[in-house]
Each structure stands twice: as C-alpha cells, then as structure tokens.
From TrEMBL:
<dbReference type="InterPro" id="IPR037066">
    <property type="entry name" value="Plug_dom_sf"/>
</dbReference>
<keyword id="KW-1134">Transmembrane beta strand</keyword>
<dbReference type="InterPro" id="IPR023996">
    <property type="entry name" value="TonB-dep_OMP_SusC/RagA"/>
</dbReference>
<protein>
    <submittedName>
        <fullName>TonB-dependent outer membrane receptor</fullName>
    </submittedName>
</protein>
<comment type="similarity">
    <text>Belongs to the TonB-dependent receptor family.</text>
</comment>
<keyword id="KW-0472">Membrane</keyword>
<dbReference type="InterPro" id="IPR008969">
    <property type="entry name" value="CarboxyPept-like_regulatory"/>
</dbReference>
<dbReference type="Pfam" id="PF13715">
    <property type="entry name" value="CarbopepD_reg_2"/>
</dbReference>
<dbReference type="InterPro" id="IPR036942">
    <property type="entry name" value="Beta-barrel_TonB_sf"/>
</dbReference>
<feature type="domain" description="TonB-dependent receptor plug">
    <location>
        <begin position="120"/>
        <end position="225"/>
    </location>
</feature>
<dbReference type="Pfam" id="PF07715">
    <property type="entry name" value="Plug"/>
</dbReference>
<dbReference type="GO" id="GO:0009279">
    <property type="term" value="C:cell outer membrane"/>
</dbReference>
<dbReference type="InterPro" id="IPR023997">
    <property type="entry name" value="TonB-dep_OMP_SusC/RagA_CS"/>
</dbReference>
<feature type="signal peptide">
    <location>
        <begin position="1"/>
        <end position="27"/>
    </location>
</feature>
<keyword id="KW-0675">Receptor</keyword>
<dbReference type="InterPro" id="IPR012910">
    <property type="entry name" value="Plug_dom"/>
</dbReference>
<keyword id="KW-0732">Signal</keyword>
C-alpha cells in the first residue's frame, strides 16, 4: 500500500516537474531596458530588438528604451546600423540594459561606387557622401536641387518655378553641350535628368568627381556621376509604418522697385522732350487721351501666394530571407504666378525587395510616377518679337495699362498704339487665357539576380545580371483661344498643339566580382559587360480654328497637320576594375572601360577610358607614432585618368538629304535629292583627362573630418560650331567639329566637426568651399571667338566672359565731348566710353573683357543640433567672384523706350543733377548708352549668401501614445529665408547658357516658404 502511494506521489512530482519545465519554457515575460552607444553613452533610438527565431520585435524610442514580451528562455537580437549586432540570452530576467559597440568598418562609411561598394577609408578617388536625411529637409520637386551647397565642387543653379529642372555642374564647365552629370539610381544609369524620382525614397547619395571614381562609367562620366541608392528593408524586423508630410506657403519676398504712374509719365515725357519729339498722348496732360485714372502695380496683380505639400507613407520590414520597402508619395507645388501656372503635381510609388536563399540573391524593384505640370506660358508663334520670359514682361508692364477690358476678345486689356505707343504684355491675362501643360507617366523596373559561385572565408566570386526597363510617356498640350490684347498681341483663330513622346531605355549588364585576401594582400576585381538601347518616338499634331464653346481636341479644328520621327541609339561597353589593398596601408585602383556608341560612325565608334589611382594610409605606418585619439585616419591619394562624353545628339555625323529639290530636264520639272547641310563625318568622343590629389583626415577621437583636393581637368575634342562660307550652299553654316579644348582647375575643402559627448546637447557643423579657374585652350578653325549676349568666349580666356565697352564717366559739357575721342550721338548727360584702341574714335575695336561670369568660389555651411527632444538645422550656401548681366535690370534702365523703369532711373543725369552715374534719358538713345559695357548697373556683382533652410523640430514623449505610436515629431521650416546679395534681380544663381553664363535672361523668383510638418512612425 505504501509502495503504491509512493509511486503515485513520484508520478505526480514528475508530472508537476514536466509541467513546470514546460510552463517555464512557454511563459511570457516582459523585458524592458535601455540601449546606449559605446563611447558617448547616449541612448540610441530606432534599434531593432527581435526575439530570435520569431517576427516578434520592437524598436527603441527617443530615450533608447524598449519593452517586449518574450519567452523566459528567449534570446534577443539587437541590431542598428553602424553598430555590431548583439545576441543576449534573457534567462528569466525582466530588465536588460545593453551598450552597443561601434562597428568601425560600418562607421568608416561603406560607400556605393560604380558596380560595388567600398569602405570610405579605402577610396582612392574624389567621392563626396551626402547626408540623405539632411537634404530631405528641403522641399524641392527635383532631386538634383538637393545637391546645392552640400559638397565642394558641385554648383547647382535653378529658379523657383515649380517643376523646373536644375543645372548641375561638377568641377566647372567642360563642354559647350550638355554639361549635366550622369545619374545612377540603384545601379542603373537614368541619364542627365532626375526630376521624376521621389526624394523621400533616397537612402544614400554619392558624388563621383574625378576620373578614378567615375572611370567605370567611361563615355558618360566626363561631367561627373551622382549615385543614388533607394531605401531597403531590414532583416528580421516587423512591419514598420512611417508617415511624413508637410504643408507650406510660398511668398515672393523680393519685389523689383518700379515706377508708379506719375513718375513713369514724367520719365517718358522727358525722353521725348530730350529727343525733340511730341509727347505720347497717354502721358500728355494736355491730351484728351491722357491716362490719370489707372495706376497698376503689376507685381501685386500678377504675383500671388503659392503653396506646396508633400505626403509620404513608407512600409518596411523583413524576415530571415526577404526584406521589403515600399512607399507612396504625393507632391504638389502651386506657383506664385496668377493664371494657369506654373504648377507641378506628382504621384509616385516604389517597392524594393531583397530575397536571399543560400548563395542566391535577387533584388527586384518597381517604381512608377505620374506628374502633371502647368508650365509657364510661352508661345513664340503668338508672343512674337523676341519676348523675354514672362517674369520680365510682368515687371516691364506700364502702370497706365489696366488689367481688364471687356471689349477685347478674352476680356483682358492691352496697349493701344494711339494711347500708349509701347508694346508691353498683360502677363496675368496671357497666363490665364493660354493652356500649356505637360503630363508624364514613367515606369522604372529593375531585376538583378546574383549568385555566389564561390563563397568561403578566403575567396568570393559573384555573378550578377542587372536588367532594367525604363519607359516614359510624355504628352505636351498647348491651347490658345482667340484673343485680342492690344495692337501687337492677338490671334484671330484658336490654336491647338497636342504632342507626345515615348522614351524607352533597356539595359542588360553582366558582371563578375571576385574578392580574396592573401595574407596582407586584398584584391577586389570587377569585370563586366553592358548594353543599353535608347528609343525615342516623337509625334506632333496641330489644329486651328476650333469652334466655340471650346472643346480642345484635334478633330474639332481645321488645317490639321501631323509629324513625327523615331530616333534610336545604343551603347555597348566592357569594363574592369582592380582594387588592391596591402596591409591597409597602400591602396591601388585601376579601371578601364571601352565603349562603343552608335552616335559616331563605325570607324570612330569605340573609345577606351582608363584611370589609375593610388592611396597611402599614413596613420597605419609603424613610424606614425601619433595617438589614434589625435589622428585616427590620415590618407593621401592621387588619381589620373580619362573620361568621355557622348551626350552630343544623334545622327550628327550623317548628312541631311532634301528629297524635294526641283530640277529642270528638257523643260520638265523633276524632284530630286541634294545634300543641304555640311557635316563632319569624323566627329569623335569629347575626352576629359583628370588629375586629382587629395588628403583625408579624421582627427581628435573622430570629432573632425577633413577632406582636401586639388584637381585639374582638361577636355579635348569638344564639339564646336566652326563657321563656313555661305557659298557652300549649306543650311548649316556652323557645322560641328571636334575642335575645342577647355581646362578647369581648383581647390576643394570639406570640414565637419562632430560634438557628440553630451547627453542633452549634440551638434554637427560642416563647411565646404571650392575654387575654380576656367580657361579655353582651343576653338578650332582660325580660333575665332564665340559671341554670346554681352559675352565672348576666346582662347586664353574663360568661357563666356563679359565683353563690351569700358565706362569712363558721364559727359558734363559739350567741351568734354569735343575733347574726347569721336563718339557719335553724344551729348551732355551721356555715357563716356574709353578709347582703348587710341584711334580717336569709339568703335567696336574699343571693346574688351569686363569680368568673369563664372563664380570663382562656391561654399556651403550646414549646422545640425539636438537638445533633448529638440532638433535644429541651419543650412546656408553662396558664391563669389563673378558678375551678372541682367536683361531685366537693363530693360528697366534704358535711356529710350517706354516700358516701365526701375526707381534707380529717378537719379538720372539732368542739368540740375550732375552728380550721378546714370545717364540722361532720351528717345532712340543716339549715344548708345545701352550698349554692352561695364557702366554702373550693367554688370552687377553676383556675390551672395543665402539662408536656404532653418528648421526646428520637437519629438513628443512616446508614453503619451502608449503602444500606438513609436515616435512623433513635429517641425517648422523656413526655406529661402533671405539672400544677402548685391544683385538687383531675383536670383543671383540663375540658369543660363554655357556660352553666356553671366547673362540672366529673366528667371522665375525663388519664393520664401513657410512649412509645418510631421514625422510619425508606427
């Protein structure tokens, strides 16, 4: 009996023990803790905390805190970019605080370069890495505008028009054609425009500036390369949802001071009287047509408050074998012009996935964007007479013209030949009547499987197939109704143009990447082959006289015409690169690429582009006895190589045949063919040779990073239009030949200071500065100079240097005129020009170079700080050492003409006001006071400093929201707060032509923006 009882009790104890063990295994335990970083002991936000073997996970909050329910015997995985991953066994604990250790290899910045990655410490070329988080604090429709002021050697010019592209130049002007850099998105070349892509998708941005860095892109890298990598998911991370959005108001803070009605009429009358001409009736108080009841402020009428908004939703996460990152984005920018534009609206969506299993990996991605742009109206066939941009027309408009006139077709007023006798444009009217928009749909897909053929500790060999498909549909729509707007502007019939374009780019790349370490020797070898085909299909359609009420479709009109063309080009390439590292002290990069382009005839189709770069990590030498706390990195590097440019247009080497030339044979009319243009069949690559010597240093416990570079870039075989006689019969009297040569040289410096040893207050301060010296070495032919708007490009000088007469004061008396060199039409009050030739006459021989049109110095300064839950950003940029020729200011200061005038003209010379540098006003300007010269105001200093961004944010405590939110940040931003400038126009950093870089034809004002935004993560 006792034995049975004992056995029964033992059985109960055994069952209890088994149950206890099972319960202990499966019982849930809440684990909390704080995660800090080693070195500064500051809390880390966003650390992934995952229960091993499950998808159960959380991320740390702003204070580095986490809380997770896990099994008693769970193992927690802690991972965070830049730190070593840690596995921690819980062992029943409820509190686990850890300190994450810096992963020096990751902190040393793994940089994306062409067809691979490198540690930044191993780079031998000039590569700048931009902080994607910082550039995304700026609101822009175009990713390329985010580069402004962020890194040395990169200049960005753009106006404030919604949807407008930026002009990006890396290390100066090196061609007379397309000077934009090549953009690479997720390993795929996307050309020289990046506007369709969503800035919120960006993970990293690298700028390759020298031959060593860019040579692997060969024929397309002469203008630099910008590599953009989009966001990816993270392994073993639960779904994370992020929303970011802002809304902002745009205002034109700067107004050009022009005359009101009374001053305008006074100046206009003085011009006529000084020329001995009768007064214009609308300005003559004695005339029945005198205007005294209209005083229009056109800038107030034509400019309004604009707006901008952006909403982005991101989804990311991943398991053991797959990660994903998806985004949906909406951006809209309504411009500050009254009327139908300019506005820009874009919808976009992206999904990136990475799937891995064993040695196989594939990373498909798909991006789609739809944009709609109401462009700023301009029709050269309607607004004839060489009209300036609409912003100039708006400011030039006379105050004696009203806005509306119900008697005119369309309802808007225009100038009268009888009353005003001046041709000015009613800009709000034109911009309201005309419709001009562009609609774009783009799909961009990548599939890039890769397989590790060899994968062991000492050797890795990986094959990768990179394929992409990029297709863009563009519809351009323009409609002009019947309208009448004065004696110069009007159309008696409606006009409709409905055009389309389809751009298709297909890419196939095969690469082999071999890595091995043999003792102190490390080799990284890349071999590849690539083929890219571009197809463009253009279609145009025109229709007229559509009936009212208007329904603008082509079939509703008459005189219907159509046109179209199809253009194809292809590029085949082979490339290889060797990265060699000996003992982490001596570095070598050797690259060669051979490209064949259909844009050249068969004999000239192929070009080879090699480069060689060396690096020396001095701090790793035994003789370098400086403490690592003082110098943790000191690297000297040098590179030399060749880069190419094939962005020259298609079929330029082929002659054009006109098939409709009439001939007469025995009095019979016969149509035949004839070559009507002379071309050079022997055009070849534009080739840039680049020398770069640089120094990288990290100092004082990684608190200071310094990068210094000296560079020289010489481009030869630049395509130049060389003049030929009209007698050749060619319709092209400036055929392109490889005749030009340009050299750019300069210094670059980037310095960053990190203050991160305080628990409450930390900041980063970074500055960059670059200089440039530009010189034209050859222009071909007889080295004839090339003229632009007030500029000249000449051998031995800069590209597009200002050119004209030299100002020598104002004539005060007729005696001064008589004693001076003969200057036809001069009278007291006119500009005196210097007789440089000494021939006693002011003529074209007295023109000379008047100053640089290219900034000699550009710079940027970025300050970011965190104080407890507050964050602050201040970003500024600027340029110096150049002059601007402003079409707008000069038109407002003309001695002749009857458009409105700048207030400066009130200080003109008169017999009572002789102490001035502004000449008299006189109709027809007999002295040529308005000619290109350096008279005050005609060339203005372009030096400026812009406060681009001021932003203040606050992250709310997480415990306010329980478990519903991971973080919530609100912020306010002011963009383009103020520009300190001498220039009397809108933007001192305007877009311009290559051959006239200092000529501001008229740019849309860059607005000041006030934004409120929020960042939320779930």
């Amino acid at each position: 009996m006792r034995t049975k009882t004992l056995k029964r009790n033992r059985f109960r104890y055994l069952c209890f023990l088994i149950a206890f063990i099972g319960f202990s295994s499966f019982a849930q335990n809440t684990v909390t803790g704080v995660v800090k970083s080693s070195g500064d002991e500051l809390p880390l936000m966003g650390v992934n905390v995952i229960e091993e073997g499950t998808t159960n996970g959380v991320v740390t909050n702003m204070n580095g805190e986490y809380s997770i329910d896990v099994a008693q015997d769970a193992v927690l995985l802690f991972s965070y970019l830049g730190f070593e991953e840690q596995e921690i066994e819980i062992n029943g604990r409820s509190t686990v605080d850890i300190t994450m250790v810096n992963n020096l290899e990751t902190l040393d910045d793994v940089v994306v370069v062409g067809y691979g990655t490198q540690r930044k410490s191993d780079l031998t070329g000039a590569v700048s890495v931009l902080d994607a988080d910082e550039v995304q604090k700026v609101s822009n429709s175009d990713v390329s505008q985010l580069l402004q002021g962020r890194t040395a050697g990169v200049t960005v010019t753009a106006d404030g028009q919604p949807g407008a592209g930026a002009n990006v130049r890396i290390r100066g002007v090196s061609t007379f054609g397309d000077s934009q850099p090549l953009y690479i998105v997720d390993g795929v070349p996307v050309g020289t425009s990046i506007r369709d892509f969503n800035p919120n998708d960006i993970e990293t941005i690298q700028v390759l500036k020298d031959a060593s860095a860019g040579a692997i892109y060969g024929s397309r890298a002469a203008n630099g390369v910008v590599i953009i990598t989009t966001k990816q998911g993270t392994k073993n991370t639960p779904l994370q949802i992020q929303y970011s959005g802002y809304y902002g108001i745009d205002e034109v803070a700067q107004r050009i001071p022009v005359l009101g009605r009374e001053d305008y009429q006074m100046i206009s009358n003085e011009k006529r009287m000084n020329a001995g001409q009768p007064l214009i009736p609308g300005n003559d108080p004695s005339s029945d047509l005198y205007v005294d009841n209209i005083d229009t402020d056109w800038q107030s009428v034509g400019l309004k408050s604009g707006s901008r908004q952006n909403h982005n939703i991101g989804l990311s996460g991943g398991g053991e074998n797959i990660t994903y990152n998806a985004s949906l984005d909406y951006f809209k920018n309504e411009g500050v012009f009254v009327g139908n534009g300019p506005d820009y609206e874009r919808y976009s969506g992206r999904i990136n996935t990475v799937m891995e299993k064993g040695r196989f990996k594939i990373s498909p991605s798909l991006y789609y964007t739809h944009s709609f742009e109401n462009s700023l109206t301009f029709r050269g066939d309607v607004l004839t007479g060489g009209r300036p941009p609409l912003i100039n027309d708006l400011v030039n408009a006379i105050p004696t013209l009203g806005v509306y006139d119900p008697e005119n077709e369309g309802g808007y007023a225009g100038t009268s030949s009888e009353i005003h006798q001046e041709i000015v444009l009613n800009v709000p009217g034109i911009n309201s009547l005309f419709t001009n928009n562009v609609e774009v749909d783009r799909i961009f897909a990548i599939i890039n499987p890769e397989f590790k053929i060899i994968d062991n500790e000492d050797h890795q060999l990986t094959y990768k197939l990179n394929t992409s498909y990029d297709k863009t549909h563009v519809r351009s729509f323009s409609f002009v109704p019947e309208f009448e707007m004065g004696y110069f502007f009007g159309s008696g019939k409606s006009l409709l143009d409905d055009n389309s374009a389809i751009y298709t780019v297909g890419l196939v790349e095969n690469t082999l990447n071999y890595n091995t370490s043999l003792g102190q020797h490390t080799f990284d070898i890349v071999l590849g082959q690539t083929f890219q085909k571009n197809t463009t299909v253009l279609r145009s359609a025109h229709s007229e006289d559509l009936p009212k009420p208007y329904y603008p479709v082509l079939s509703n009109g008459v005189n219907q015409t159509v046109g179209g063309q199809e253009i194809e080009s292809s590029l085949a390439s082979y490339f290889g690169r060797l990265n060699y590292n000996f003992d982490d002290r001596y570095l070598l990069t050797a690259t060669v690429r051979r490209d064949g382009s259909s844009r050249f005839k068969e004999e000239n189709r192929w070009g080879t582009f090699p480069s060689l770069a060396l690096g020396w990590r001095i701090n790793n030498e035994e003789f370098f006895n400086v403490s690592e706390d003082v110098v943790s990195n000191l690297k000297l590097r040098a590179s030399y190589g060749e880069l190419g440019n094939q962005n020259i247009g298609d079929y330029l080497y082929q002659a054009v045949i006109n098939r409709n030339i009439p001939y007469n044979f025995n009095l019979d009319r016969v149509l035949g063919g004839l070559q009507t243009s002379v071309v050079s069949e022997d055009i070849v690559w534009e080739t840039t040779t680049s020398l770069d010597i640089g120094l990288d240093a990290t100092l004082f416990s990684r608190k200071i990073d310094v990068t210094l570079d000296y560079y020289e870039r010489e481009t030869v075989d630049i395509l130049v239009g060389v003049p030929i006689p009209w007698s050749t019969g060619s319709v092209n009297v400036n055929p392109l030949v490889n005749a030009g040569s340009i050299r750019n040289s300069g210094f670059e410096a980037e310095v960053t200071y990190h203050h991160n040893n305080s628990e409450d207050f930390n900041f980063d301060l970074s500055a960059n500065v670059s200089t440039i010296n530009n010189e034209v070495l050859a222009l071909g032919g007889n080295q004839e100079p090339i003229s632009g708007a007030g500029s000249r490009t000449q051998v031995g000088r800069e590209v597009g240097e200002h050119f004209g007469f030299v100002y020598d004061g104002i004539f005060q008396t007729q005696a001064e005129i008589d004693e001076h060199a003969f200057q036809p039409g001069a009278a007291p009050g006119d500009v005196r020009f210097r007789d440089l030739s000494g021939d006693g006459e002011i003529n074209a021989d007295d023109r000379t170079f008047l100053g640089s049109a290219l900034p000699s110095v550009t710079y940027g300064l970025n300050f970011t700080a965190n104080y407890k839950r507050f964050d602050f950003t201040l970003f500024t940029s600027g340029a110096a050492g150049y002059y601007i020729n402003s079409r707008l200011y000069r038109s407002l200061m003309l001695s002749t003409g009857y458009i409105n005038a700048h207030e400066d003209i009130l200080n003109r010379w008169t017999p009572e006001n002789t102490d001035t540098d502004i000449p008299r006003v006189v109709a027809d300007d007999p002295n040529g006071n308005a000619r290109d010269s350096n008279r005050p105001g005609w060339l203005q200093k372009g030096d400026y400093l812009r406060i681009n961004t001021i932003s203040l944010g606050y992250s709310l405590p997480e415990d306010l929201f329980g478990n519903s939110l991971n973080s919530l940040r609100v912020y306010g931003t002011v963009q383009n707060l103020h520009t300190f400038q001498y220039y009397k126009g809108y933007n001192p950093d305007f877009n311009s032509g290559i051959l006239e870089p200092g000529f501001d034809n008229g740019t849309y004002p860059r607005p000041r923006t006030f934004m409120l935004g929020v960042d939320v993560s779930f």
